[in-house]
Amino acid sequence: MxxxxxxxxxxxxxxxxxxxxxxxxxxxxxxxLLQDTIRGFxxxxxxxxxxxxxxxxGGGDAALWKGLVEMGVAGLALPASHGGGxxxxxxxxxxxEVLGEAALPVPFLGQVLAGLAVSWGGSDAQRDRWLPRLAxxxxxxxxxxxxxxxxxxxxxxxxxxxxxRLSGAKRFVPDGATADCIVVGTRGGGLAVVEAGAxxxxxxxxAGVDRTRAIAELDLDGVVAEPLAEGEAVSGRLRDAxxxxxAADAFGAAWRLLRMTIAYVGxxxxxxxxxxxxxxxxxxxxxxxxxxxxARGLLWYAAHAVDxxxxxxxxxxxxxxxxxxxxxxxxxxxxxxLHGGIGYTWESDVQIWFKRALFDRAFLGxxxxxxxxxAALAGW
Length: 380
Description:
Helix content: 40-55%
Number of helices: 12
Strand content: 5-15%
Shape: globular
Number of domains: 3
Structural class: alpha+beta
Order of helices and strands: HHHHHHEEEEEEEEHEEHHHHH
CATH architecture of the largest domain: Up-down Bundle
Distance between the termini: 23 Å
Largest sheet: 4 strands, mixed
Radius of gyration: 21 Å
């Protein structure tokens, strides 16, 4: 399996005479630095007290997002010609993992997906208009894909675009009530851009299980919309990128829960003995680790496939999303159980990452749905 970009530090080869080439399937120094930098930012700028405050209130944190934008996160995978970092979905996945680990209340998911949609499917004029503003965060953006009835996939969208006017309804739109630019999925698997404030657009925030992320419902009644020039050609790839980012977020959240649980059972005593000394507890944590960590390969391969292997991307992304979000929820349930009675209370911080994992599992379709898709894509 190869997931490292050629411009990174990974090397591959075979023996040639006396010389033995090295095979390195690890991240490059730049990718490790990217994660370490964001991890350091999150630790400094969003300690648990601040995160808890935002969780209690619900919604995002504009100051945290501004800090990430200034670090280049919003434009990480956008073309350098339009002010972006010219990186790839794999790099976005590495960022998403750290954001899930920290449960940062920022509009990363919608912003970067909208940027990818315009970058991949927009005309030159559309790219020139939107990408520089998305890269700098001057325009807030999101994607509106879901529809009532658990309809998430491009082939299921029913929002109708006729003569530049869009009608329909979208559900579970990340930060949909505050976005300046909304990329909407349309009938036939197309994509169209709708601007905030357009007549006929009604957006209302709704309560979601994950209070670190705001969601909204959109009603579109003949709203002026501009179709992306290559929207139908890229909507599937956009869906696959979204699945990878959700899998990465869940992976980060699961590891945070594991570390919290290990710390807790090391100090909590029962019958005068730390819980960590009980064999059953050791086995439960060991099982979680051994099931979660190998899934990292699924995540990196799926991201690489979206970037470089279009013929494999849909299957790899579906498998990664199904498996990692399922594993994350299993870890979350064990974390609640091993925290004992306190784990079930509002006062416990475990709930923050538990609910993050719940969102990642449900958004864009459940694991069961994507296992069905992966089986069909594999010809079963």
